[in-house]
Design a protein that fits this description.
The complex is a heterodimer. Chain A contains 13 helices and no strands. By secondary structure, chain A is an all-alpha fold. By secondary structure, chain B is of the alpha/beta class. In chain B, 34% of the residues lie in helices and 23% in strands. In chain B, 45% of the residues are buried. Classes of the chains: A mainly alpha, B alpha/beta.
Chain lengths: 267, 269
């Protein structure tokens, strides 16, 4: 205490930095030295197991993951815009939107997909949702994304300054024209960061499609990796799948960050 | 610029307000306003902060819904639910204290959007009219700038050009220079003076007493939600009859003249 208080603030700060590096390095060294490296390599980074997954994991699994994600995101976001506008407009349709949002936001996505895949055929005399298990899965992701993004977009709409609405209305624009041409373009810009978050979550949630059942051709990354794991009795496929998710999400967040900067009207 | 001001085809005066009341909850902001603005007339509304003058202007084109009373714009009863308010508004330009330009559009884009969407003008025609109006307000060289790249005075002039691009018959100004740095006020007032001289029917809520005196035909002094005094502008501003008008003008025209008891109080708006 007396030694510390005798130091200058800059010296104390430097001492703190050095101490945190020492602790960090210590922990890292401990992990590196005590880990069973030969077993780890064989179990998690097994080159033969990893090699056996290619090219299927790219041409089928990654392709399907991206396809399911993009379709669900595009349609789900459009649904979110509609729900957000309806909720703000009020009336019976507004209440419908509120009910829709609360239902699909409050229920786990897994249960929603399950309900579309198995509940709908039960309830409607064996009639499936078009597209079979994949169709049911994507529809599940769409309604969940719609519910979540509706709340994000509603917040974005409300964040647009009320003067924008007044200016447009005073020019004779109708409520609908004002929303479409003035408010929404600004609101969608505001919601780019939370919607990016939503997209990344959706990319990972596409793994929930396994509950609907998948064929050799409709497997996405996680299902593919799980099947591969059972075949080889080795967890390396999980590491490969994780790496592929990161290969998609890291450049994606970087690109969106750039887009955000480009669209900033203050720049 | 007289070609900017189309003649009002109705026999009614452009603005006729009768017994207008407006309350926000329990707070009655307008307590029975009667006001008529004739074609080509320029009317300034002055008064202290909280007097209801901005609310009055915002009621005129129904940005605020009146509690009771009648507002006739170009012969259309705005409080009648069956009147197409959007339709009437296309003939009434409005300029705001905070400009309210669309930040995601360029200056000329701001002037085009409503022409295209509301008046359904062709792209070429809308661009031509927008250019003409931007040149009119002295911003012919700033057409492709976004609002964020323009000064406050330039933004407000774009806002005026945007309103003029709809060929309005009435222009409403809500403290158009209140948010501007002092050295930028002159350019905006000059554009408004040109507009007044061209014969535009104008209603201007303002703190610029010299503008009111020199440019407007009639000035209205409001306080506490009522019209306290009105008359020819030069007369009202240089020789007010009512005591409240006198006190207000004394304070505004000579801010250094402050009674000891008032020191520390400000006059925000």
């Amino acid at each position: 205490m007396s030694v510390l208080s005798s130091l200058k603030p800059t010296q104390r700060a430097r001492l703190g930095t050095i101490a945190s590096y020492v602790v960090g390095l210590g922990v890292l060294l401990f992990v590196l030295l005590t880990a069973d490296w030969p077993t780890i390599t064989k179990q998690f980074f097994n080159p033969e197991v990893a090699a056996s997954m290619f090219p299927g994991i790219i041409t089928v699994a990654l392709r399907n993951t991206l396809l399911y994600t993009i379709v669900s995101f595009v349609v789900g976001s459009l649904l979110g815009i509609v729900l957000a506008v309806l909720k703000l407009t009020g009336g019976p349709l507004g209440w419908f939107a509120v009910g829709f949002i609360e239902l699909f936001r409050g229920v786990p996505a897994l249960l929603t997909i399950f309900a579309f895949a198995y509940g709908v055929p039960l309830a409607f005399g064996g009639n499936q949702i078009p597209g079979g298990s994949v169709g049911a899965g994507i529809l599940g992701l769409i309604v969940v994304t719609g519910a979540y993004s509706a709340e994000i977009i509603r917040a974005g709409i409300q964040a647009v300054h009320s003067g924008q609405n007044e200016a447009a209305r005073s020019l004779g624009m109708t409520q609908g024209q004002t929303m479409f041409w003035v408010i929404l373009p600004q609101a969608l810009r505001i919601v780019i960061p939370p919607m990016t978050n939503e997209l990344v979550m959706l990319l990972k949630d596409s793994s929930l499609l396994f509950i609907a059942g998948a064929t050799v051709f409709t497997k996405e990354l996680t299902t593919f990796a799980r099947d591969s794991l059972s075949t080889h009795a080795n967890p390396t496929p999980l590491i490969v799948a994780a790496a592929l998710y990161l290969i998609v999400t890291l450049p994606l967040t970087w690109l969106v960050g750039r887009l955000e900067k480009r669209l900033d009207p203050k720049r | 610029m007289s070609d900017l001001v189309p003649t009002v085809d109705s026999n009614e005066p452009p603005i006729r307000i009768k017994d207008l009341h407006k309350s926000f909850g329990d707070n009655e902001v307008l307590k029975g306003i009667d006001l008529t603005v004739a074609e080509g007339e320029v009317v300034c509304v002055i008064g202290p902060s909280g007097s209801g003058k901005s609310t009055l202007l915002r009621c005129v084109n129904m940005l605020e819904k009146p509690t009771s009373g009648s507002i006739k714009l170009l012969g259309a009863e705005m409080t009648d639910p069956d009147v197409e308010v959007d339709q009437v508004r296309t003939h009434v330009g409005m300029v705001f204290q905070s400009f309210n330009l669309f930040p995601n559009m360029t200056a000329i884009g701001n002037c085009i959007i409503a022409q295209r969407q509301v008046l359904k003008r062709s792209k070429a025609e809308a661009i031509e009219i927008a250019k003409k109006n931007l040149e009119l307000v002295g911003l012919g060289d700033r057409m492709s700038y976004h609002p964020a790249k323009l000064s406050g005075g330039q933004q407000q002039r774009v806002a005026i050009a945007r309103a003029l691009s709809m060929d309005p018959k009435i222009m409403l100004f809500d403290e158009p220079t209140a948010a501007l740095d002092p050295e930028l006020v002159g350019d905006v007032l000059a554009v408004m003076r040109d507009l007044a001289e061209a014969g535009m029917t104008m209603m201007v809520v303002t703190h610029e007493m010299m503008f009111a005196r020199d440019v407007s035909d009639r000035t209205i002094f409001m306080d506490g939600g009522v019209i306290v005094e009105e008359g020819p502008s030069a007369e009202l501003i240089t020789a007010p009859k009512e005591e409240r008008t006198q006190v207000f003008l004394k304070r505004v025209l000579d801010p250094t003249h402050i009674e000891d008891s008032e020191l520390g109080q400000t006059e925000p708006d």
